Amino acid sequence: MQKMEWIESCPASITVCDAEGTIIAMNEKAHTTFIKDGGRLLIGQSLFDCHNEHSNEIIRELLAEGRSNSYTIEKNGIKKFIYQCPWRQDGRVAGLVEFSFEIPFELPHFVRS
Predict the structure, then answer these.
(1) Domains of the chain, with CATH numbers?
(2) Tens digit of pLDDT for each residue in 1-41?
(3) Sign of the CA dihedral with 54 first, then 59, 60, and 61 last
């Protein structure tokens, strides 16, 4: 996978896996976020070894169905928006990308027409 400079400096944590769930890329923010778990040493490891069975089932569904998943979490006093989506190669799901953005606890919501 080609390395792009903007991904490294992006304030979102970006982690990419292949169709088997193997982590193939992480940007600097992801490395920092997961440093206690090994940081960049997670590249080459399976996502399925990093998650519980409920999460693994969701990962399997996302890979099989080629759909996205989004939710918010709070951990260590930080609220994050998590967006997971497939990436494709030759029209087939080739893996997933997870974007994790830190967000304020009080987030404005606008309805626009």
Answers:
(1) 13-103 (3.30.450.20)
(2) 556 688 888 899 999 999 999 999 999 999 999 999 999 99
(3) positive
Residue 75 amino acid letter: K
DSSP letter assigned to residue 60: H
Residue 73, C-beta contacts closer than 8 angstroms, at least 6 positions apart: 79, 80, 82
Residue with token string 């626009």? 112
CA distance 40 to 95: 18
Of 8-17, 56-65, 86-95, which gets the smallest average pLDDT? 8-17
Distance CA(37)–CA(108), nearest Å, equals: 33
Cα–Cα distance list, 84 to 21, 39, 108 (Å): 13, 19, 22
pTM for the full predicted model? 0.90
62 alpha-carbon distance from chain centroid: 12
| Secondary structure (3-state) at 72 | strand
DSSP per-residue codes, 18-57: ETTSBEEEE-HHHHHHTGGGTGGGGTTSBGGGTS-HHHHH
